[in-house]
Structure formats: C-alpha cells, structure tokens
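job 3f2a | input accepted
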Amino acid sequence: MKSVNQLNHQAKQALAMPCSTSTTATGPINDHTITQVNQVFGQMQLIFGRKYTSRFGSDNEVKATKRMWARAFMQEQISDQQITFAISRIIKSKIEWPPELPQFLTLCDDPTIYGLPDKDAARQQIIDRNGKHRFKQNFVWLHDVVEVVYHRIGDYTKQAASSFDKHFNKAWETAVTEYKTGTLPPVLQALPAPKLPAISDSHSVPVNKKCRIHQRIEALIQAAKENR
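job 3f2a | predicted structure (228 res):
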C-alpha cells in the first residue's frame, strides 16, 4: 500500500505532461483542466484522507482515473465556480466516501451559479404560462433560458406529467449548456399582426394581394356583395 505522501505526489503529477501528448476524445487536455483536476483530487484527499488514498492501487490507476475526469471536465465544460460549489456541497453534506465521477458532475450541476433560476421554479413558470397565466399581458420570464425552453417544449404541458417532465429535463439541460457556452439563441419576437382591410365597400387599408389573410377577407367581402 502506498503512503499518503506518495499518492499525493502522484495526484499532482498525473496530468502534468505536455498537452500535445495528452489527449482526450474532445482534443488535447488543456493546462487549465489539468490544474482543475489536480486541485479537485488534492482537495478530496484532504477531505477524505485514507478513504481517498485507499481507492487507488497503482500509479497507472491514478493516471487513468484523472484522465477520465479531465475528459469529463472538458466535455461538460466544468468551470472553477462549479468545482468550488461541488466541494462545498461535499463538505456541507458530510458524505462519508469520496464521490465517483458521475456523482461529482451532479454536484457541479447548479444553474444558480450562473444567475439562472431554480430548475423547479422554471418548470412551474412554464406550466403556469400555458395555464393560469396564458392570457396575462406583459408576462415577465424568470430568465431568457426559461423562455427559450418554453418555446421549445411548451406544448407538452398539455400532456401527462411524465411526458412533460421528460421533455422539460432534456430541454432545460440543453438550454443551460447553451447559456453557459454563450450559444443560447435569442428568442424570436412574434411578428405584429398585419393591418387588415375593413369589411366594407370602401377599404380603409389597401389590400395586399400577396397576403393570404387579405385575400381571404377580400373574397368574403366579394361574396357578401354578391349575396346582397
């Protein structure tokens, strides 16, 4: 069994190699990700002590584990803020064993870090917008992310809760990722209603021959004239 000091040294050096030779499925491991992973593993060793060091049986296992975490950090675009939040949650929750990679990523998943509303609050607002607030004018969304999700899956509020939750969870995750990466699309504003001709013998607004609505109204006017 290796000593704590030996494993601590391994934890600091496991990813310390040139990026050109250290690659992941998403490309080379950048220096910032190397620093992030080393810091996380170092902090977990301080928090869990022997429970942490005893999980690794060899140098190769330490390196392989850290490279897997680095790939995940790059893929999920984990920020320093998320890592700080996850470590604080580990301490506050007083969990007894070091989290595995999926658990740690879940601990990082807190949209409020980025000023986003609580997920449950966002879900309820989307439901209310198609429910008790469907006729409310000057409706104010909690955040642009919520409005984007609403436009993508709002119609599913009419389906069973399980179906809506499935679509909401997927759309929420996508929109949050887009917001974090600066790729959230702007919400397209509704086009103003076209000016329609008055239904009378003398039109107050010229008929637009290319507008289907105008064409339909013109046909109705003509039919009304013929039936007089």
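job 3f2a | Residues 43 and 116 are 27 Å apart (CA to CA).
job 3f2a | closed
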